[in-house]
Design goal:
alpha/beta; OB fold (Dihydrolipoamide Acetyltransferase, E2P); Rossmann fold; 24 helices; globular; 6-stranded parallel β-sheet
Length: 692
Amino acid sequence: MGLMEPVEELKGVGPKTAVVLKKYGIRTVRDFLYNLPRDYENYEAPTSIAEMRPGKVVIKGQITDLKTRQTRRRNLTITEGIIRDRTGSVKVVWFNQRYRERQFSPGVEYFFTGNYELKNGRYSLISPSAAEVTYIDAKSGLSPVYVAHGRLKSNDFRRLMVKSRDIFISIPDMLPTVKQGTRAKALFYAHFPNSLKSIQGSHDYLAYEELFELILASQLNRRENDKLQAESIVFNAPKIRELVASLPFKLTGAQRRAAWDIFQDMEKSTPMNRLLQGDVGSGKTMVAGMSAYEAFLGGVQVALLAPTAILASQHYEGLKQILEPLGVKIALLTGATKKKAELKKQIISGEVDLVIGTHALLTDDTEFAKLGLVIIDEQHRFGVEQRQKLMLKSPAGLAPHLLAMTATPIPRSLQLTVFGDLDISILDEMPMGRKPVSTSIIAEVETKEKLYPLIEQVLASQPDAKKHGAKAHGQQVYWVCKAIDEVPGDALNVDGGKSEITSVKKRCKRLQEVFPKAKVEFLHGKMKPAEKDDVMERFSAGEIDILVSTTVIEVGVDVPNATLMVIENAESYGLAQLHQLRGRVGRGASAAYCYLLTSGDMRPTRRLSEVARSNDGFHLAEVDLKLRGPGEIYGALQHGALDLRIATLSDTKLIARARKDVEVFLQKTENMVKYKELMNGITKYQQITTLN
C-alpha cells in the first residue's frame, strides 16, 4: 500500500471513521503513520489490587458493573464500575467520560493507570487511563498514548495501528543520508516500542527527518528566489555620504553594516530577500530610509507597508524630514487619506518616489510606474497573500527587492531553519542616549502602597517631548491589561496557574478615581480603526496622561514622553511579548520604568525574572525558545503554523547536522527526482518559510 493512498484503505477504517480522521488532518496513510503518540504508559510492573496504596498506581484486571449517572449539581456525568483481579476488587470512577461505559469488553483484561484516593468516604481509582493487555508489548510493558480526535480515543488509534501493523514492512526510506530501513524502523518503534531505548532511537530519527525537510524547503525557496530577475541598483557612494552627513545623529556601527548589506544586495540582478531584525529602538527605520534613498537614486519607486495607520504616519513624518530635502517625493496612503484617486494617479505616473501606507497599498487600483523596492515593517502582521500582492506590483518580468523588518529578535536556530531562505542583518547596538528600561516585579497587593506613588511622581515630572497639548501636565503612563471586558471566573495563565483578570474598562475607571486630575482613557483592538487612531494621536500629543490598553500598543507606537509602563497579570504573557511591550517606553531622554504586576502570592516565574534581569531581546528570545518552544517566537513572526511533531528548535547539534546534510543533498540535481516523497512532503514547509 502506498503512503499517499487515502486513509480509508486501511483495515478497520470505515466511512464514519475516515470522516473523523480527515476532519483532524489525517487524510492519507502517511498522515496516519505520522500521527505519533504524545506519551507512553509503562505497565511493566502492575500492582495487585490487594497491595494498592494511596497515590498513582498501575493495576491489571477485568471491569464489570459499568453504569453512568447524571448529577444535578454542576451537571456532571459520573461513570462507575468495579475492577477485579485474582486478589480483590476496587471501585473505579470517571467524570464526564461517558464513552467509558462502551469502551470495555466482557472477559478482557486491561491495564489501568490513575490515582487511588479517598473520595466520598471510600477509596476509589479516579479517572484512570486504560489499555487492553493484548496491545501491550509483553516484554517492555510500554503502551503509546495518542491525542484523542473527536470520538476517536487513544485506544481506538492503538487498535487501528495493530490492524495496520503489516504496512510498516513496506515503508520506503525518504532521506538519502540514513541507513536502509531506518525510517520504517523508527515509525514502527514509535507505535510499537519494545524498550525506552527504541523510543529514543525513533525520536532521534524522526526529529532529524523533520529538520531535514524544513531546512531543505527554505534552501529550495532561496534557489527559486535566485532565479528571479530584479532591477540592479548601483551603489551611489557620494549621495549616501551626503545623506549620512545631513543626519542630526550618528549612525551606530550595526546600522552602517546593515545598510552596506542592503546596498550590496540591491546591486545584484536577483532580488534582495533580506530580513532586518533589531531590538525595539535600535534604528530600523533609519536603515529603511537609507535603503529607500538608494532605490530613489537608482530610478525606482519604493513602497513601505506598515500594519497600522499610526505606524505608517510615524514613518511618514520621520522619513519626510530626512529625505524630502534631498529631493525624494514622499506620500502617505492609508484608509483616512483624502483625495486618494489623485494620489494614486501620481503614483502610477511616477511622480511619487516613496509611498508609505497600510493595506491601502494592496488594493488593485494602487499601481506603480516602476516599483523596485518593497519594505515591509513588522512583516508577520501580513499574510502570505498580502505580501505577494504588493510584490506583484513591480514591472512585468522583474521582481522588486524585498526588505522585511521585525522588532522580535529571532534565535539562531530559527534563522537556520524557518528563515533559511532569507539573508539576515541584525541591529545589535542601541543609538547613543538610549537608556535601558528599569524593570521590577510587583505583587498586585502592593499596587496602592508602591505603584500609585510612583505614578504620581511621573505625572508630575517635566514632559520630555517638544510638542504637547495644553492638557499635558507631566510625563505619561501606559497600563496594559489582558482583557477588554470582564472575564467570568478565573483565567488560567501561561504557567497553568489562575489569574484574576481586570479588564481595560474597569481598570480605566479605577485609575481615573485614584488620579482625578489626570486624563485617563482606554484603547483596545475591537475599537474602530478611526477611534484607535484618534486615541493614539491624542496620547502622542500629550493630551492623555494614562493610557489603559490591551496589547494593541505592542508594536510601533513611539511616544518619547511615555516613561512608565505597568503590565498587569504579567504572568499571563509570553516572554517575547513582555519585552515588546516594555519597548514602548524609554524612547525619550528621561529614565524609563516597567513594572510587571503579578496576581496571587506565588513566586515570580523564571520568565518574569529573566525580563526583569535583562533588556537584551536576543538573549530573551533564546530563553523563550528553551522555555516554550518555537510557537511563541515563530507565531509572532510569520503567517502560518510551524507544526513540528518531534524536533525541537533548541537542538542546535541536530540542526547543524541536518543543515550540512541538506547542502550535500542539493549538490546532486538528480536527488530531486529520486526522492519524490521527500520533495512532495516539503511543500507545506516551503509555504511556511517563504516571504515571496
